Amino acid sequence: MAEPTVPVSPEIEAKLARIAARTGQSLGDALFAAVEGYEARLFFEEMDETYAVLEADFREWNAYMADLTEWIGEPEPLPYAED
Fold first, then answer.
1. Pairwise CA distance, residues 27 & 35, whole Å
2. Which string of DSSP letters, residue by residue, matches 12-64?
3. What pLDDT is attached to residue 78?
4. Mean pLDDT for the chain?
5. CA distances from residue 75 to 49, 58, 69 in whole angstroms, order as listed
6. Is it the case that residue 80 has pLDDT exceeding 60?
7. What is the distance between the alpha carbons of residues 31 and 25, in angstroms, rounded to a whole number?
8. How many angstroms separate the first and last alpha carbons of the chain?
9. Which tens digits make up the pLDDT trace of 43-72?
10. Do 55 and 65 form a contact (C-beta atoms < 8 A)?
11. Is 40 left (phi over 0), alpha (psi -120 to 50) or beta?
């Protein structure tokens, strides 16, 4: 079975080759790692946006915090947090 191909610009191919050379990965593994990183970044950006919407709604945020406190208990202050 033939491997699927994705056309990329020469610039992207060169960047991918540099990453592969620096990391000792194959081009395919370097591409996979780059896509995984991008997917993770999108996940956290979307999570931040969702929390911002939740936090903007006072009642919903308080209900969420109450549920969270019930589930995990009162959070301990961070040892490095300022008073």
1. 12
2. HHHHHHHHHHHHT--HHHHHHHHHHHHHHHHHHHHHHHHHHHHHHSHHHHHHH
3. 65
4. 89
5. 23, 20, 8
6. yes
7. 9
8. 63
9. 999 999 999 999 999 999 999 889 988 888
10. no
11. alpha
